[in-house]
Amino acid sequence: MSTALAAPAATAAPAASAALFRPWTIRSVTVPNRVWMAAMCQYSAEASGPDAGVANDWHFTHYAARATGGTGLIVQEATAVSPEGRISPYDLGIWNDTQVEALRRITSFVRAQGSVAGIQLANAGRKASTGRPWEGGRPVGPDADGWRPSAPSPVPFSEGDPVPHELTVGEIREVVEQFAAAARRSLAAGYQVIEIHGAHGYLIGQFLSPHSNRRTDAYGGSFENRTRLALEVVDAIRAVWPEELPLFFRISATDWLEEDGWTAAETVRLAALLQEHGVDLLDVSTGGLAPGARIPVGPGYQVPFAARVKAETALPVAAVGLITEPEQAEKILANGEADAVLLGRELLRDPFWARRAAAELGAEIRTPDQYLRSW
Questions:
Q1: How far apart are the C-alpha atoms of 65 and 70, rounded to whole Å?
Q2: Above 80 in pLDDT, residue 56?
Q3: String of b and e for 308-326 (b: at least 16 CB within 10 Å)?
Q4: What is the Cβ-side half-sphere exposure of residue 39, based on CA atoms within 13 angstroms?
């Protein structure tokens, strides 16, 4: 007679006692738990030619591992809505149908594991056309598949960087249309969640902050003008993204600047507007706009910004930033500081973090049949 211990079924419901493993239905999409993967660029696509921006075996393996590891929602790395919107020439893109076909392979596998497939749509603005981080990450020119970046104002990110092209009003409208076209392709590629990248000093964040936005027209100056592009992008995506599917927005809640920066108070104010325009969750990060900002980095250092938005608005929030331990993540949710947590580097170190967290917290988690013998 066999003495083997019975393994939990692959479709077992998460234990209600652990907030981290309670499912959450947003519009029509049910995310099986609150352990989510933050968007993190892999800088691993072809830089030029017909396969530029196309996902390859690295991307498939990378995201497949986190799906089999039990991550509830996987937000794909910043995926450029145009060639010039890439952070580096090696970034993923979603500006053509060849890219869509390659991405569909990833979303199909992620969803088959019970995870939710999300995509972060982005334009890097003045921080575009840079090399890979492990190669120095400095701006690159046409001789290295680079280009001249664009921005709200002709103000470079860092001293010595190329002066970006100042977008005209007509070009701003083209950017909005590119986000909408990318949203259509995201649906065709099988994504269930879109996240608009408005954080870390990329294009939308550059418009938000007076530090990088020196315009005097309808897109600069006042809070209403600086937030205009963000809301136009939200509206354009909501017009083509199905009503039953969620839309997220990632923001840097503060630039960490003593003067002329985007502030936490403005984040709260914008959060309420984003919800009115159809955003379902605010992914709250910080920084990235100015290289000289002094940031007090430590475990959970960005969580208070998410907690403030949650306390002062009705918009759900996700917290991110050096969240590494299961008990730490559970406490954030149990205390009502956030509705979900996003892990970055920790999921690079451990694709099976969600399974380890479930074991430590005494919760059940969906397990692929092939791995049941280990549970």
A1: 9
A2: yes
A3: bbbeebebbbbbbbbbebb
A4: 29
User: Distance between CA 283 and CA 249 in Å, rounded?
Assistant: 6
Helices (H) and strands (E) in the chain, counts: 11, 12
Known catalytic residue: 202? yes
Q: How confident is the model at residue 280 (pLDDT cuts 50, 70, 90)?
A: very high
Query: 287 has which bridge partners?
Result: none
Q: In terms of Cα–Cα distance, which of 14, 20, 15 is closest to 337?
A: 20
Q: Using an 8 Å Cβ cutoff, are 83 and 95 in contact?
A: yes
Candidate list 63, 90, 191, 202, residue with the active-site label? 202
Q: How confident is the model at residue 7 (pLDDT cuts 50, 70, 90)?
A: very low
For every residue of 207-232, DSSP letters joined together read HH-TTT----STTSSSHHHHTHHHHH
Q: What distances in angstroms separate CA 230 from CA 90, 173, 250, one per listed residue?
A: 25, 12, 11
Read off the DSSP letter of residue 136.
T
**255 token code pair:** 């630039």
| pTM for this model (two decimals) | 0.94
CA angle 116, 117, 123 (to 5 degrees): 140
